[in-house]
Design brief:
72% helix; mainly alpha; globular
Length: 292
């Protein structure tokens, strides 16, 4: 499904490659292979959903992309670190990511592990490069650190649940941590960058909470109906690993209906922000209709 040229995803894809390239240069010191692996993980495409959410939240409260750039870089680095680690043989053991060999396949397991560590650390460096007030930077650092902790917990729960036949509530708990935490963090980072009021933060967090779960439900649906060439990883991999998913628990049509309902709740949460949140609504529409 194409996106308009003026969408948040287009904005993120326009700004992020150069910003990431510039930021990553020289960050691994003399460890050239490590630097190459980190760059491989961060620069090999992707939808750039989380940076787009940073930009969208900032715009919704009246800020421009320049104020949100450091947070957009930071959240993408955390996301890329998590993908490198999730793909490792000791985790999800995946060979493809974004249609390319995963980092440990392109390099080796030890280098991939260290590349993930490097990307995670550099995310916080990116935040401190910001020109925002110190109090705002401190708030962003806390938000991102807490999201990282939730992601680790979510992955641990996910690994422990393989083959266990979870119920819907337990599955939701995993995804609120593993996927939802970083989506909520991305929106919160953008809101902080834009100087959002308390009421605006509440509305944006409600949006992010609902969208994060809708995003994961739709991901589960794509694992059933998606094409490997489009989704960039092997279709059916969840079923092959005996993972609990929304289609497996609810049936495919009910899972699709759940994603649609969660999307509607996310969009409704943006009402207090008015027309300034229109790009976030458009992004939500795309994320629950995408084919990759």
């Amino acid at each position: 499904m194409p996106t308009p040229d003026d969408s948040l995803l287009a904005l993120a894809r326009q700004r992020l490659p150069h910003a990431l390239d510039t930021f990553l240069t020289g960050r691994a010191g003399p460890a050239e292979r490590l630097a190459a692996a980190a760059r491989y993980a961060a620069m090999n495409g992707g939808k750039r959903v989380r940076p787009a959410l940073v930009y969208g939240a900032a715009r919704a409260v009246g800020a421009g992309p320049e104020q949100a750039d450091p947070a957009a870089i930071a959240v993408e680095l955390i996301h890329c670190y998590s993908l490198v680690h999730d793909d490792l043989p000791c985790m999800d053991d995946d060979d493809l990511r974004r249609g390319l060999p995963t980092c440990h396949k392109a390099f080796d397991e030890a280098t991939a592990l260290l590349a993930g560590d490097l990307l995670q650390s550099l995310a916080f460096v990116a935040l401190t490069d910001s020109l925002l007030p110190a109090s705002a930077i401190a708030a962003q650092v806390r938000v991102l650190a807490e999201a990282g902790a939730h992601m680790a917990a979510g992955q641990a729960l996910d690994l422990a649940a393989e083959g266990q036949g979870l119920g819907v509530e337990a599955l939701e708990q995993i995804h609120r941590h593993k996927t939802g935490a970083l989506i909520r963090a991305a929106v919160a980072l953008g809101a902080i960058a834009g100087g959002a009021s308390a009421d605006q933060r509440v509305a944006l967090d409600r949006f992010a909470d609902r969208l994060g779960l809708a995003f994961q439900v739709h991901d589960d649906v794509l694992d059933v109906i998606g094409d490997t060439a489009r989704i960039g990883k092997p279709a059916g991999s969840d079923e092959a690993r005996a993972k609990s998913t929304y289609p497996a628990l609810l049936g495919l049509q009910a899972a699709q209906a759940l994603a649609s309902r969660l999307h509607d709740e996310a969009v409704a949460a943006l009402a207090p922000l008015g027309e300034a949140a229109a790009p976030l609504r458009e992004l939500a529409d795309f994320l629950v209709a995408r084919d990759h």
